[in-house]
Amino acid sequence: MTAKSAAPAGPLHGVRIIDLTQYVLGPYATQTLGDLGADVIKIEEPSGDRQRGQGKAPKSQTMGPLFVALNRNKRSVAIDLKSEAGKRALQKIVRRGDVFIHNMRPEAMRRLGFSYQDVAAIKPDIIYVEAVGYGSGGAYNGRQAFDDLIQAASGACDLLPLYDGDPALRPLPSIIADKTCGLFAVIATLAALQHKARTGEGQFVEVPMLETFTGFIQAEHIWGKTYPDVPGKFGHPTTITPHRRPYKTRDGFIVVLPASREGSVKFLELGGIANAYESERFLSAADGKARVNVYYDMMREAAARHTTEEWMALCAEHHIPAMRANEMTTLFEDPHLKSVGFFEEREIAGEGRYVAMRPGLKFSKTPCSIRLDPPPIGAHTDEVLAEPN
After folding, report:
1. Which of 55, 168, 280, 312 is deepest in the core (most CB within 10 A)?
2. Boundaries of domain holding 202
3. Same domain, 132 and 205
4. Can you tell me whether residue 78 is helix, strand or coil?
5. The domain spanning residue 161 has which CATH number?
6. Is residue 287 situated within a structural domain?
7. What is the rounded distance in angstroms from the CA atom of residue 354 to the CA atom of residue 278?
């Protein structure tokens, strides 16, 4: 069994989520709902979630790092849905559920006997959330979808070329489509719960990855193509400039975004470059683009004058927006993250210590919390199935 804490109930306390998700999108969504206080029942095959075996764990082969990062605040029920006994077990669990969520292909759920129509026949007011790659009625409907495929189709792979000039299409180095769409699945679930609270009605909810992620990632980058009759280019100018990167300090890195020309002047002055905008190097630049390049050269030179900690103090004193740029090796030591206890060392029974990232949301009456550590396969099967209808 996993460790249980006596943490206070979150805002979704009393809501039961039946979770038939794997990979990243679904588990990220259901973990978020669990962090908010929902009782998440994770339905797994007897062999467990496929993410369990990826990466190293201290003792078992079923607690890989990504699984641990995405599956706290859940109870695991291991049943074989291809067996009649497994189907009956899930039907029993459905009768006590508020939300049924999956990210399998719809035809697979129909074959198992748990389509929306099947589940609604058991629990008419169920909220049935179906995360799919491509929306129903579209040309790609029914095709398999993974993060890289959605990044490709959404145009996200063409963003780094806009930034660095390398024409090779590349995905962003994050499972960002899955996680973004997972958050939209949370938003959709909360909206459907609100509707149910008002009317008593459940409903079918579709979360299509391509449509959802394209709207998210391209919101600013449609830019010059917003008006068909006005010539323009894709790409929001301030997000794709190659100058958009941290500056090297004497001992680390910092990002500085002066809110005004006065802020830039003060930063450059603090970095040993006085009267920057009146200097010969700035005024003698050939054109506006050249002046921009000179400005950023001066900003880099100024940044190297002090340590990161010195800059943090100076920028706070002079009201210049700035923040240290953590490297992966310094992230655990970030003063703010340490002071709020964001990284929490916990223990999985039978596995060992692990690092958890606490929920960032704060509620004055119903705080989020980590109530359950990631569960072993089927750790709660008997407990859940013994609960009354």
Report:
1. 312
2. 16-218+335-386
3. yes
4. strand
5. 3.40.50.10540
6. yes
7. 55
Q: How many CA atoms lie within 13 A of 352 on its CB side?
A: 9
In the chain, the amino acid numbered 81 is L
Choosing from 39, 49, 178, 373, the catalytic residue is 178
Q: Any idea which residue has 């963003």 for tokens?
A: 159
Distances (CA, A) of 387 to 92, 96, 134, 383: 10, 9, 37, 7
Four-point Cα dihedral 87, 90, 95, 101, nearest 10: -120
Asked if 73 contacts 2 with a C-beta cutoff of 8 angstroms, the reply is: no
| Whole-model pTM over 0.85 | yes
- Supply 282's token pair: 């700035």
Query: Among candidates 84, 80, 5, 96, which has minimal Cα distance to 48?
Result: 80
Per the annotation, the verdict on 80 as an active-site residue is: no
- Phi then psi dihedrals of residue 108, to 5 deg: -65, -40
The number of domains in the chain is 2
Rounded CA separation 308/312 (Å): 6
* pLDDT tens digits, one per residue of 155-196: 999 999 999 999 999 999 999 999 999 999 999 999 999 999
At which of 291, 324, 357 does a domain end?
324
Domain final residue pick, 302, 324, 346: 324
